[in-house]
Amino acid sequence: MNKTKIGGILLVAGLMLTGCGTGQSSEANKVMSLTPSYAELFTTVPGLTKAADAVVVGTVTASVDAPPVDGLPFTNALVEVEEWVKGGAEDNQVTIHQTGGTLDGVAFLDEDNPLLEVGERGIFYLQKVPAGYVTLSGPTGRMTIAEGKALPLPASTLTDIGTFKDVSAVIAETERLSTE
Description:
single chain; 180 residues; alpha+beta; CATH 2.40.50.120; seven-stranded antiparallel sheet; three-stranded mixed sheet; 10 strands; 39% strand; globular; Lipoprotein
């Protein structure tokens, strides 16, 4: 093989590698997948509601890094509260503390419970922790609101969510259960 062909092959290979990336911000050049376990799994909205310290309907307005714990990054999502369904407070904002983020150039991601994104609107079933709140049972404790529906994450363990025709029915049932 002559030098021109070898040089051309290396140039093409170099261009192909230049176009590859992780899809992460320039801060993260490695990705670590997280697979957390949860102390309790919930299969029904009543069970989730009864265990929740608070339930809110709201929209994520910001996402900020939180201090790492034992070498694991955390992210705080600030949620503007539209409605306190359970555990009413006068605050119009809650902080949802999530496992994951970027630390030392490594992105730590939980594919089953991805970090909340600015603009995401949802129903959040929350447990009080020192850093604010966490969603109960990870992905199960949050539902995205879209087109009038409450949509659980694919990894949610809820089995009864399909029995609710729309988001207002989920909220009404949560409110009813909160007064029992």
